[in-house]
């Protein structure tokens, strides 16, 4: 039922003039995709610097919270542009994208990364100021840094794999994959 709703919404989006023109425009689609990748590089690069600082692997001579505060604004700007361009990429090819195994896994990893970030910031507030100049952050923050790195590596890998059609509905994937991917046309639904 949820897959049917997603499919119907994707068909509706696909029939809009803006979606069609964006998909058919060689320059617009490529510029949006390039902007998405560049802002991903900016945001994740800055986040990696913060995570490595928490792990005691980089910039250990700088106070951790000051480093994070200074990198926060450009990182969040990059994430905002990355989110907007990601939505635009989905909008350009909604039916195929909505039935992509890799997109669905990527969305789950993004949700995990968001939850991890919220928990990380709570632990950061509760950690107190004593550790700020220490080489390594407290264990809870180091765990959050490792989770962050793991989630974002998965997001990047899945994002790259979206371009490949190994599990497209037209290839009649196994029933479990078909249900998770959201295949509708002639496929048994769970």
For the largest beta-sheet, the strand count, sense and barrel status come to:
none
Question: Structural class per helix/strand content?
Answer: mainly alpha
From the alpha carbons, calculate the radius of gyration and give it in angstroms.
Answer: 20 Å
Count of domains? 1
Q: Note the total helix count.
A: 8
Q: CA-to-CA gap between the ends?
A: 8 Å
What's the total number of strands? 0
How would you describe the oligomerization state of the chains in this entry?
A: single chain
Strand coverage percent: under 5%
Keywords: Membrane, Transmembrane, Transmembrane helix
Protein name: DUF6644 domain-containing protein
Pfam family, one: DUF6644
InterPro entries: DUF6644
Q: How would you portray this structure in words?
A:
InterPro entries: DUF6644. Keywords: Membrane, Transmembrane, Transmembrane helix. The chain has one domain. The longest helix is centred in the first third of the chain and has 30 residues. The protein is an all-alpha fold. The protein contains eight helices and no strands. The protein is elongated. α3 runs antiparallel to α4, α3 runs antiparallel to α7 and α6 packs antiparallel against α7.
């Amino acid at each position: 039922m949820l897959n049917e709703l997603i499919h119907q919404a994707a068909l509706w989006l696909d029939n809009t003039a803006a979606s069609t023109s964006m998909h058919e425009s060689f320059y617009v689609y490529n510029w949006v995709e390039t902007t998405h990748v560049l802002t991903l590089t900016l945001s994740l690069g800055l986040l990696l610097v913060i995570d490595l600082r928490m792990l005691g692997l980089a910039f250990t001579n700088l106070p951790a919270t000051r480093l994070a505060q200074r990198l926060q604004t450009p990182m969040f700007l990059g994430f905002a542009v990355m989110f907007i361009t990601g939505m635009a990429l989905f909008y350009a090819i909604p039916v195929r994208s909505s039935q992509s195994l890799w997109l669905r896994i990527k969305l789950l990893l993004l949700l995990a990364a968001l939850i991890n970030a919220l928990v990380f910031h709570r632990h950061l507030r509760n950690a107190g100021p004593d550790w700020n100049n220490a080489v390594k952050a407290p264990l809870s923050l180091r765990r959050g840094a490792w989770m962050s790195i793991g989630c974002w590596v998965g997001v990047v890998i899945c994002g790259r794999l979206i371009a490949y059609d190994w599990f497209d509905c037209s290839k009649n994937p196994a029933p479990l994959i078909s249900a998770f991917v959201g295949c509708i046309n002639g496929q048994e639904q769970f």
